[in-house]
Design brief:
This protein is α/β, with parallel strands linked by helices. It folds into three domains: 114 residues, 3-Layer(aba) Sandwich (Rossmann fold), CATH 3.40.50; 230 residues, pyruvate-formate lyase- activating enzyme (Alpha-Beta Horseshoe), CATH 3.80.30; 56 residues, Nucleic acid-binding proteins (OB fold (Dihydrolipoamide Acetyltransferase, E2P)). Helices cover 34% and strands 21% of the residues. The strands form five sheets. A five-stranded mixed beta barrel has the order 13-14-15-17-16. A hairpin with a 2-residue loop joins strand 16 and strand 17. The longest helix is centred in the last third of the chain and has 24 residues. The radius of gyration is 22 Å and the shape is globular. The two termini are 38 Å apart. The mean pLDDT is 94. The structure holds 5'-deoxyadenosine and iron/sulfur cluster. The site of iron/sulfur cluster has 10 residues, from helix 6. 5'-deoxyadenosine binds next to strand 11.
């Protein structure tokens, strides 16, 4: 989501005539797109913003903007301005479309700083320029915001309520991305399964996928989506994925915890049995489906027994990979006032969780050995000259010999060797 928002920021700047530079000393404008989902993301942003102070000193005309989730928190805009008075523009996620106006204001009345109320009522702004940077894949927002209020999560506070884009706008953008030659499109939303909930016209995620699947033969392409919420995924969605050629057999389904007690405290609205049932349904309809997840340890009240439930579900489901996190207190959320788990306990648990998941990932990788899989070549392998990398439909990364001419092509690759999460093979002639 943030990467795509950065593409919109860059799109606005390109529209104003700016060009990209990799060297901050050369920049006329620097925009920090921040994230506040965990404490380390925030610290990272603050460190990077502080580091441009000297640039601004040596180049007073440099425009510095800070945008994104972090600024959207209570009072964060004012606090940022106090801490870093050299910031010229502060915008939230919901008024990013104002960036162009703000930059022009600064350029026309030098040294005038602007602070826009980051809590302005958000509206969906269509047709923003996008400067795409993601190679073969294009990101496509289908909705913004979140209504779920998981008790650990800051997102509903900083991104506001769920707003879905009109189906016709999404389909227009989808088709235009195919026309531009993108081989892969990833649909984005905090909880894509509740797409349409605010549209009052009966549109929902299954219908959107149905329309997307109608374009299966329009070009050769792949469709992915993230993230799904286990409480909202349903058989219609699973059936459409199973039947569509273009929608990948790859589902990201964050579980967060394997303990019913913790899931309830997290306000997740599903139990471990319900989650396992969904996994069963997916595996029956899409036997080779790559299932990935997000898991957290150290949530308030988590005891060893709860953590064991998490390890157990990791083994049972067989996630092809998992993003693993230590719970991080977010001010203003319900969990922030619950009794906290000591840091050393969380640290120990995350290491054990990663070890468990690595073993699962390794075992799943082994099942690919000897098989031939269609791979979309995404890039040259930066670590190994003469090699390229790409993904299977199920989302597994594959490395094999090849050159840059292959980027964007679909090739059949025979898997010869596997190493934890990575697969190695050669093109099948
Ligand atoms: N602490 C740790 N991880 C978090 N996530 C969301 N909020 C927090 C938090 N406060 C994780 C969840 C979510 C992913 C995007 O980030 O696992 O699925
Ligand atoms: Fe956060 Fe829960 Fe919404 Fe995901 S579904 S963004 S974890 S509140």
């Amino acid at each position: 989501m943030n990467i795509h928002e950065s593409e919109k920021i860059a799109g606005t700047l390109e529209y104003l005539g700016y060009t990209e530079t990799k060297d901050s000393k050369e920049a006329d404008i620097i925009v920090f797109n921040t994230c506040c989902i965990r404490d380390n993301a925030e610290k990272h942003a603050l460190g990077n913003i502080g580091a441009v102070k000297h640039l601004k000193k040596s180049k007073p005309d440099l425009i510095v903007a800070v945008v994104g989730c972090m600024t959207q928190q209570d009072m964060a805009g004012v606090q940022l301005k106090e801490k870093f008075p050299f910031i010229d523009i502060i915008l939230g996620t919901n008024n990013l479309d104002k960036l162009g106006e703000c930059v022009l204001d600064i350029v026309n009345n030098r040294h005038k700083s602007i602070l826009i109320d980051p809590n302005e009522n958000p509206a969906i702004v269509e047709h923003q320029p996008v400067y795409r940077t993601s190679g073969t894949n294009a990101w496509l927002n289908i909705m913004y915001g979140c209504n779920n209020f998981c008790t650990y999560c800051i997102v509903p506070y900083v991104r506001g309520r769920e707003r879905s884009r009109k189906m016709s706008d999404i389909m227009d953008e989808f088709k235009s991305l195919l026309d531009q030659g993108y081989q892969e499109i990833t649909l984005l939303g905090q909880n894509v399964n509740s797409y349409g909930s605010n549209l009052d016209n009966g549109d929902n995620f299954a219908r959107l996928l149905e329309n997307i699947a109608k374009l299966d033969d329009y070009t050769k392409h792949r469709v992915r989506f993230m993230s799904s919420h286990p409480k909202d995924i349903n058989m219609d969605i699973i059936d459409i994925i199973a039947d569509s050629k273009s929608i990948c057999n790859n589902i990201h389904l964050p579980i967060q915890s394997g303990s019913d007690k913790i899931l309830q405290l997290m306000n997740r609205h599903y139990t471990r049995d319900h989650y396992l049932q969904i996994i069963d349904d997916i595996k029956k309809k899409i036997p080779d489906c790559g299932i990935t997840t997000d898991i957290m340890v150290g949530f308030p009240y988590e005891e060893e027994e709860d953590f064991q439930d998490t390890l157990d579900i990791v083994r049972r489901v067989g996630f092809s990979s998992a993003f693993t996190f230590v719970y991080s207190i977010r001010r203003g959320t319900k969990a922030a006032v619950m009794p906290q788990v000591p840091a050393e306990v969380s640290k120990d648990r995350i290491q054990r969780l990663i070890k468990e998941q690595n073993a699962v990932t390794k075992a799943i990788s082994k099942t690919y050995e000897g098989g031939v899989f269609e791979v979309l070549v995404e890039d040259i392998n930066p670590k190994k000259e003469g090699f390229v990398c790409g993904r299977t439909d199920t989302g597994r990364l594959v490395n094999f010999q090849g050159n840059a001419d292959l980027i964007g092509k679909f090739v059949d690759v025979k898997i010869e060797k596997t190493q934890s999460a990575s697969l190695f093979g050669s093109i099948k002639e």
